[in-house]
Design a protein that fits this description.
Largest sheet: 5 strands, mixed
Oligomer: single chain
Distance between the termini: 19 Å
Shape: globular
Number of strands: 18
Strand content: 25-35%
Order of helices and strands: EEEEEEHEEEEHHHHHHHEEEEEEEE
Number of helices: 8
Structural class: alpha+beta
Radius of gyration: 21 Å
Helix content: 25-40%
Amino acid sequence: MLFYVLSSVLVSMNAEAEFVPAKRIYKSQGLHPDLVRRSSRVSFSYDSGAVEVAYMVNKNGQVSDVRVLKSTQEKFEKHAIELVRNYTFDPAQLGSIPTSSIVRETIVFLLDRSKIANTNWFHSNDGDSQDDRVSGLLAVFHEYVSDQDQAQAETVLVSMRNIRSRSFDRLVQMELAQLLFSEVFNEPQLRFDSLQTLDWLQRLDYEGKKDLDAQTRLVIRVNLLTELINRSRYVEAIELYETMSKEEQVIRKFVSAVEEIQQIQKSADPIQQTVLISDSGDGHHRLFKRSFSVELESGNLDQIELRCDTKFTRMEFEPDKMYAVPKRWGDCLLSLLGAPGTKGTLLEQ
């Protein structure tokens, strides 16, 4: 089972031989001048954000095939890629043999207020800080939502996302606003994305963090777990369920669903889920079974990447082909690369 752990290698134990994760031994100093490395947290001049990446560490300890899995803002992605490409590792070992492995890591970018305190753009014309501007926009947003004015509410959301110098807590507030928008105006995909992002942000480690209250966190996670099950995202569903094992009401509500998922994994019954290629040209899915195919409904799919615990491979997409994943590769992340907006169905069996 994979667990999201900041700045650590995420791998499973191989049943055939002891698997020793790769260990980072070197970080380059020749990085972007706005970046100052501190573990998996980075001081950034003008904003706060986070990027989750996956990359291969080969048997020589070198990093390659970096892929952004998600981010709070696109502008951070190139900096995250730059950081991890400068890493050097002691390679993973399977038994006593050096082997390639996949690392997943979340990099947190922290707003460095010491660099912006005296800059003109950090303040609006009336002297308010950017955080104060977000507060004002949030108030206006809630008025439009109450009035059922979808167009104006969406305009305010866009304005908030264009503000620079946002703290992490403001990111959480803005994501909560987007979640409210999605529920009021019936935007299911936006709702799912917001639930995922809110859960992700609450699991990150950053300075000055202010957690949401326990009840709000629980409501978000219960709704996310429901969405993951309904969308057949069973790997993520099981992981999330296990992190909430101390919540008795969650156990009671989902225990039968989780038992059914476990039976599905053991059975030969196929499962399917909708796949959608994002604006960045990729879509990511954690594989639940050991073979899969992709049926296109629209658009174009060019390549398939598999990032497994002990294996990375890239291949051309072949329609109607059933791809088999050897069990010895471990847990796998499937990346579909193609034209933005491409839609299809992932069939696993």
